[in-house]
C-alpha cells in the first residue's frame, strides 16, 4: 500500500466518501449523508481522544503529536470503538448497531479507495463487543390504532369545517384585515386536515410527501402531482424513482375542498406550504425586491396584508413545502389539541410514520401481505417481517381454538 495513503489523516477522506454516498447534484443531499457525516465526526473525535472515557487518549501513540491517520487503524481500533458505543452512553442496542454500521461502511469504502488494506471493521473480533440486534428500528414501532386515527381525523375535520364556515359567513361589511385573518385561519385548518388525512390513509412515507432539506429532489408534492379525479398522486419514492400512490376516498374530499379554498396561482404550488411567518416574510421581501419594488413600498404592502402567505398567494410567490420536521410539529400540536391517549415509549404524539404503519396493519388484516405490500410500496418479505405480530396473533387464536376443541373431547 502506498505510504501516502497510510499517512493520510482520517478526516481527509470524509468529504469524498460523503459525496459518493450523497444524493442529488454533487452528492450534497440525503439523510444518509447527514447521518454518516455526524457519525464520522464522532469517530474522528474519539480517535483523537476528544470523546470517550476520561482516561481515553485516542489511537495515536502517546509519544506522537499528530492527527490520527490510516496507519493507526486496525481491527483492535474498531473493536475498541464498538466497545465505546456499547458502553455507558445510554444507547439502545439497535442504535449502537446503526452507528457502527456507518463507520463500517466508511471502512469498506476506504478499502476500495486504497486507504486501507483490509475491512477491519467487519472482522469478527472487531464486532464482538457489539450488542445483539433484535431487528427492530429504534423508535419506529408506533402504529396509529383505529381509535386514534378516527379521533385525530374527526378533530381536524371539525376544526376545518368551523374555520371555513366562519370565513365564508362573514358579514359583507367586515373589516378587510379581519376577513384576511379569517381566511388565513381557514387555510391553515384546511391544510392541516388534508395533511392528516393523507398521512392516515395513503400510507405514503412522510419523506415522499414533504420537503427534505437534505435532499433537493424531495421538494414536497405539488398540485400538479395530484389527480383527484383519478385518485392518484405522483411521489418520489424511497427507491429513487417517481411512482404513483393511491388516494383513497377518505382523502379526496379534504384535498378537493382545500384546493378550492387555496385556489393556487399555478399547479406548481406546494400542496402543503409552510406557514412559518419568518420564512414567508423573508421570501416575500426578496421576491418583491427582485421584481423592482422599493423597500418602503414592500413594507406598506405587507402591513396592508394580515399574513405574508396571503400576499404570496396574491402575487404568485411560491413558498416552500413544509419539512418532515414541520409535519411532526403539526402532529404534536394536533394530537395534544385532540386529547388523544397515546402510550408509546418514545412519542407522546401521533408521529407521521405511525399513520403509515397503522394503515399497513389494516391492510394486512383485511387483505393479506401481498396486497399490503403493493399499497405500502414494499416487498412482501419486508411486510411479512414488519407485521409478523399479526400472523403470530392469528396463529395463536388458531392454537387456542384447537386446544379448546381437543380438550373438550371426553377422554
Layout of helices and strands, plus pairs?
Elements: H1 3-6, H2 14-21, H3 31-47, H4 75-85, H5 93-113, H6 124-127, H7 146-168, H8 176-201, H9 206-209, E1 226-227, E2 232-236, E3 242-246, H10 249-262, H11 277-290, H12 295-303, H13 308-315, H14 324-338, H15 352-367, H16 369-376, H17 380-386, H18 388-407
Antiparallel strand pairs: 1-2, 2-3
Helix pairs in contact: 2-3, 3-5, 7-8, 7-14, 8-10, 11-13, 15-16, 16-17
Q: Give the class-level CATH name of the largest domain.
A: Mainly Alpha
In round numbers, the mean pLDDT is 87
Number of domains: 4
**Beta fraction:** under 5%
Q: Give the strand tally.
A: 3
Helix fraction? 55-70%
How would you describe what is shown here?
InterPro entries: CB (IPR044068), DNA_brk_join_enz (IPR011010), Integrase-like_cat_sf (IPR013762), Integrase_catalytic (IPR002104), Integrase_recombinase_N (IPR010998), SAM-like_dom (IPR025269), Tyrosine_recombinase_XerCD (IPR050090). GO terms for molecular function: DNA binding. One of its GO terms (biological process) is DNA recombination. It holds the Pfam family Phage_int_SAM_5. The chain is mainly α and 411 residues long. The protein has 4 domains: 128 residues; 161 residues, hpI Integrase, Chain A (Orthogonal Bundle); 42 residues, no CATH class; 51 residues, no CATH class. It contains 18 helices and 3 strands. α2 packs antiparallel against α3, α7 runs antiparallel to α8 and α7 crosses α14. The longest helix is centred in the middle third of the chain and has 26 residues.
Amino acid at each position: 500500500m502506498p505510504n501516502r495513503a497510510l499517512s493520510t489523516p482520517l478526516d481527509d477522506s470524509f468529504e469524498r466518501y460523503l459525496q459518493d454516498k450523497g444524493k442529488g447534484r454533487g452528492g450534497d443531499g440525503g439523510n444518509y449523508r447527514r447521518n454518516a457525516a455526524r457519525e464520522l465526526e464522532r469517530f474522528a473525535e474519539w480517535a483523537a481522544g476528544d470523546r470517550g472515557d476520561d482516561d481515553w487518549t485516542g489511537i495515536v501513540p502517546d509519544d506522537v503529536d499528530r492527527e490520527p491517520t490510516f496507519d493507526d487503524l486496525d481491527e483492535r481500533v474498531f473493536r475498541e470503538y464498538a466497545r465505546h458505543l456499547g458502553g455507558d452512553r445510554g444507547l439502545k442496542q439497535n442504535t449502537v448497531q446503526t452507528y457502527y454500521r456507518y463507520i463500517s461502511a466508511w471502512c469498506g469504502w476506504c478499502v476500495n479507495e486504497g486507504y486501507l488494506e483490509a475491512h477491519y471493521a467487519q472482522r469478527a473480533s472487531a464486532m464482538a463487543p457489539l450488542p445483539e440486534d433484535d431487528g427492530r428500528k429504534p423508535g419506529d414501532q408506533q402504529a396509529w390504532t383505529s381509535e386514534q386515527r378516527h379521533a385525530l381525523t374527526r378533530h381536524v375535520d371539525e376544526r376545518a369545517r368551523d374555520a371555513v364556515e366562519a370565513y365564508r359567513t362573514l358579514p359583507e361589511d367586515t373589516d378587510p384585515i379581519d376577513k384576511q385573518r379569517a381566511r388565513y385561519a381557514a387555510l391553515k385548518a384546511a391544510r392541516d386536515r388534508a395533511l392528516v388525512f393523507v398521512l392516515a390513509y395513503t400510507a405514503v412515507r412522510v419523506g415522499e410527501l414533504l420537503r427534505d432539506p437534505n435532499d433537493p429532489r424531495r421538494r414536497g408534492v405539488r398540485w400538479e402531482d395530484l389527480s383527484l379525479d383519478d385518485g392518484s398522486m405522483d411521489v418520489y419514492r424511497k427507491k429513487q424513482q417517481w411512482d404513483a400512490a393511491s388516494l383513497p376516498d377518505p382523502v379526496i374530499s379534504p384535498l378537493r375542498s382545500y384546493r378550492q379554498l387555496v385556489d393556487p396561482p399555478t399547479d406548481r404550488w406546494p400542496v402543503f406550504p409552510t406557514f412559518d411567518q419568518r420564512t414567508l416574510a423573508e421570501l416575500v421581501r426578496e421576491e418583491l425586491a427582485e421584481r423592482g419594488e422599493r423597500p418602503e413600498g414592500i413594507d406598506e404592502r405587507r402591513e396592508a396584508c394580515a399574513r405574508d402567505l396571503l400576499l404570496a398567494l396574491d402575487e404568485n410567490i411560491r413558498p416552500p413545502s413544509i419539512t418532515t420536521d414541520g409535519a411532526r410539529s403539526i402532529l404534536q400540536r394536533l394530537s395534544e389539541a385532540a386529547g388523544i391517549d397515546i402510550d408509546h415509549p418514545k412519542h407522546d404524539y401521533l408521529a407521521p410514520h405511525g399513520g403509515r404503519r397503522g394503515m399497513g396493519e389494516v391492510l394486512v388484516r383485511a387483505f393479506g401481505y401481498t396486497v399490503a405490500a403493493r399499497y405500502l410500496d414494499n416487498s412482501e418479505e419486508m411486510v411479512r417481517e414488519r407485521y409478523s405480530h399479526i400472523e403470530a396473533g392469528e396463529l395463536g387464536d388458531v392454537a387456542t381454538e384447537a386446544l379448546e376443541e381437543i380438550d373438550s373431547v371426553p377422554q
